[in-house]
Amino acid sequence: MAKLICYGGAGNTTGANFMLEFESPSHKLGMMRVLIDCGMQQGGEAAHAHNNKRFEYDPATVDILFVTHAHIDHIGLIPKLVRSGFKGEIYSTKETRDLAQLLLLDAAKIGRANEEVLYTPDDIEKSLTLWHALQYHEPRDFQDFTLELFNAGHILGSSMFKFTFPSGKTMLFTGDLGNSPSSLLPDVERVGGLDFLLIESVYGDRNHEDRELREEKFKRIVAESIARSGALLIPAFSLERIQEILATLDNLFESKEIPAVPVYLDSPLAQKITVVYERAGKFFNNQVQTELERGDDLFKFKNLHEIGRVEESRAIAGVKGPKIIVAGSGMSTAGRIVGHEAEYLPDPKSTILFMGYQAAGTLGRQIEEGIKKVVIDDQVVEVHATVEKITGFSGHADSDALVDFASESEKTLQKVLVAMGEPRSSIFLAQRLRDELNLNAVATEEGKSYEIDV
Fold it and tell me: What are phi and psi of 90, to 5 degrees?
């Protein structure tokens, strides 16, 4: 018998932190404790309070940490875990480790600037010394279980973890499942014959536009913004989303479907991440690999301006005429996009385009929901810009795709734990799984434990 304890990521889209405890004859204490992800919560004061509080378990008693992917809501508290006494091993794909190093250093820099020091660069470095790489489809024996990684299709290096126990029973942790088909990545892998499943539910209660519609909508929004001679702001996650936006713009400019206006990539972090993407060609889908073989540089084009210094970022406001500004963060919680929003949201010629999930309590969520006055850096900013949203570019699987994924194990699943979504999304998805697949599905709650009969 094992139990899963939800310390984060249950009843919330962010802050993934799941503990799997099970009896272990080989362990000196007779009990193995494994963590899956150790991420920051994002959005509002409640998230800050959560990130700053002590862990609800003793990090020194944790044996292994498995990391599904490098988004900060899955990795953001790893250095704090190490700082608090964790001395075990950390495992992920190599790409996740490489990307995590960049994002954690950036998070530490932002934290110091905001006087919210959760950990130091030394803590990050210590974490990396404990961090080991695993490959997809190469089962690894951990004595008390075997682990195999599958491609989650969410971002570069993203993984699902399949545990196989001595009894032969299996449990899969999806992490975040990708929104296939992706512009860059292969489709989410199918994994069947599972006994237990922990599945994400960010979009558990709704579906996306299909790929053709999302690309047409993107092209329309860009063209209309250019026609108004305004600025198009795209708050975007530096990891995966910005690379996908650059590749899409590259295709539109190359095909002359939109005029070649200036594009400002105002994210030094995204520029560093793009370097990792540029050397990871074998992990892209077949179409992208074909384009790369032809010599097409997907992430760079003639009218792209990579902005480095803060002074260069501020100077963008002095550039007249239509322009596109792509900057982090994706939920407008920090980063350079916030300064651009203060500058351009009052301008009716401007457009702001949201292309990813906006968590409750974030500035992005307020703007997306149509609030006409927002507070940015203690100043009230009126919103007269056009507000647009495209859900089809989300990196998360939608409700139909999540049900379809679970259906691969419809005949074998004993229990499905639904997590990593707002309560309404998790509850809705759990109900769909019960109604449509007759599965024992439970919407998880933070702090609760769930028995797993392995």
Answer: -120, 135
Q: Is 398 left (phi over 0), alpha (psi -120 to 50) or beta?
A: beta
Q: The whole model's pTM is what?
A: 0.89
Q: Comparing 199-203, 295-299, 344-348, 394-398, which segment has the lowest mean pLDDT?
A: 295-299
Q: How far apart are CA 155 and CA 186, in angstroms?
A: 10
Residue whose C-alpha is closest to residue 298's, from 427, 184, 421: 184
* Cα→Cα distances 389→214, 354, 392, Å: 10, 5, 9
Q: What's the CA gap between 371 and 57, in Å, rounded? A: 39
Average pLDDT, the chain: 94
Please determine, for residue 267, whether its predicted confidence score (pLDDT) is greater than 90.
Answer: yes
To the nearest 10 degrees (0 to 180), the angle between helices 399-407 and 423-437 is: 40
CA distance 38 to 334: 21
- SS3 state of residue 56: coil
Among left, alpha and beta (phi > 0; psi -120 to 50; other), residue 168 is left
245, 355 Cβ separation under 8 angstroms: yes
pLDDT per position as a tens digit, 124-143 = 999 999 999 999 999 999 98
What is the CA 148 to chain-centroid distance, rounded? 21
Q: Poorest-confidence range of 6-15, 35-44, 404-413, 416-425?
A: 35-44
Name the CA radius of gyration of the chain, rounded. 22
Alpha helices in 114-167, H assignment, sequence order: 121-129
Question: Rounded to whole angstroms, how far apart are CA atoms 32 and 34?
Answer: 6
| DSSP letters for 337-395 | HHHHHHHHTT-TT-EEEE-S---TTSHHHHHHTT-SEEEETTEEEE--SEEEE-STT-S
pLDDT digits (tens, 9 = 90+) for 8-42: 999 999 999 999 999 888 787 778 999 999 999 98
Q: Report the run of H or E that residue 235 belongs to, with start and end.
A: strand 231-235
Residues 6+ apart with CB under 8 A from 271: 265, 306, 308
User: Taking CA 106 as the corner, what is the angle to CA 263 and CA 297, rounded to the nearest 5 degrees?
Assistant: 35
Residue 265: enclosing H or E segment and its boundaries? strand 263-266
